[in-house]
Amino acid sequence: MATTIFGIRNCDTMKKARAWLEAQGIAHDFHDYKHAGIDRARLEAWCDALGWERVINRAGTTFRKLPDAAREGLTRERAVDLMLAQPSMIRRPVIDADGVLGAGFDAASWAELLKQGR
Predict the structure, then answer these.
(1) Fewer CB near the terminus (10 Å): N or C of the chain?
(2) Is the distance from CB of 91 to CB of 56 less than 8 angstroms?
(3) Which residues are catalytic?
(4) Half-sphere exposure of 117 (CA within 13 A, CB side)
């Protein structure tokens, strides 16, 4: 099974997710979208599969620092544009296990998701 997690290297949640995968003996690739970027097609596919509201990280500092006008009345297209411009606004981590996607880390949810990806 090919598993890739996407996020930012120094994020605490990313560290927990990677440690959990390693403890489970699950080989995975890591894509740091803060350094390597993220392409529109992939981000839009995530938004289609998971819902853009699940993909954008509204709780993060980067989102909270936006002017009120940028945060209010957010649409899918505007959210995608914001996440492309500032990848720190993408929820961390996003996991892709053979095409089965998840956003955010929760050990129980990931265990189920990884079963589906097999």
Answers:
(1) C
(2) yes
(3) 11
(4) 20
- What pLDDT does residue 34 have? 85
**Sign of the C-alpha dihedral computed for residues 47, 53, 54 and 60 taken in this order:** positive
Contact 95, 76 (CB under 8 A): no
Query: Mean pLDDT of residues grouped by 10 in the chain (118 residues)?
Result: 90 94 94 92 97 95 90 93 94 93 94 79
Q: 92 with 11: CB under 8 angstroms?
A: yes
Bridge partners of 5, per DSSP, are 30, 95
Domain ranges of the chain: 3-116
Fold of 3-116: Glutaredoxin (3.40.30)
Q: In terms of Cα–Cα distance, which of 89, 92, 93, 69 is closest to 80?
A: 89
Task: Tell me, yes or no, if the pTM score tops 0.85.
Answer: yes
